[in-house]
Write a structure and sequence with these properties.
Strand content: 15-25%
Distance between the termini: 38 Å
Largest sheet: 5 strands, parallel
CATH class of one domain: Alpha Beta
Shape: globular
Helix content: 25-40%
Strand order of the largest sheet: 2-1-6-7-8
Number of helices: 7
């Protein structure tokens, strides 16, 4: 399955999640930046509130694109121990990387929210949405971040490797994925338009969702 863009993917994903339409105590969380346009479409079509969950990849010092793990806004962190061992990273080096990414999470929280507080997650069904998964490290960190307070955790993505989905089954209650191609090389290959989502787009999508939401979902 090839998607025209993230909006197309979000609409298709919303159809697969139709059973959640209008469900009380259910919220859609987009993973910035690319997951937010997808999540916004899901939230709109399902008539559910939208919010963000910022997760950052932890890149190896010598190869920033190589993920040694990921960290979420509330501090939940996952590590790929095999890559950590192969890179010979010490706990101090890992903490230095994590500290840098925590600062970036704080910056993005301020940039995206414009002073809007996060919506409460306690006792809710949380639908975590991204534009696709490769290793799944960021999504695992996201699921671990919300799992202690959420009633249910649903992972929803347009495309991902089947092996990644199997690994994520242990941190979620259900997974919805439209396509599990093999071989899998990169998420962007399954989009005709995969231009980078900007900070302004994320901020505008969140503000628009809050403006349209009933008062009860904004608190």
């Amino acid at each position: 399955m090839i998607f025209d863009d993230r909006i197309h993917a979000g609409k298709a994903l919303a159809e697969a999640l139709a059973s959640f339409r209008g469900q009380p105590d259910t919220i859609v969380l987009g993973l910035p930046r690319g997951g937010v346009p997808v999540a916004a479409e899901v939230a709109t079509h399902l008539k559910l509130p939208l919010d963000l969950l910022i997760v950052r990849k932890l890149g190896a010092p010598s190869q920033p694109e190589l993920a040694i793990g990921a960290i979420a806004g509330n501090g939940a962190m996952v590590l790929n121990q095999r890559i950590v061992n192969d890179a010979g990273l010490t706990p101090e080096e890992i903490e230095a990387i994590a500290t840098r990414e925590r600062l970036e999470i704080e910056r993005r929280e301020q940039a995206y929210r414009n002073g809007l507080p996060p919506l409460p997650l306690e006792g809710r069904t949380v639908i975590l949405v991204d534009d696709g998964l490769a290793t799944g490290a960021s999504m695992r960190a996201a699921a671990l971040a919300v799992r202690p307070v959420a009633r249910r955790v649903i992972i929803a993505v347009p495309v991902a490797p089947a092996s990644t989905l199997r690994e994520l089954s242990s941190v979620s209650d259900d997974i919805v994925c439209l396509s599990t191609p093999y071989p899998f090389e990169a998420v962007g290959l399954f989009y005709r338009n995969f231009t980078q989502t900007t900070d302004d787009e994320v901020r505008n999508l969140l503000a628009a969702a809050r403006a349209q939401a009933p008062p009860s979902t904004n608190s």
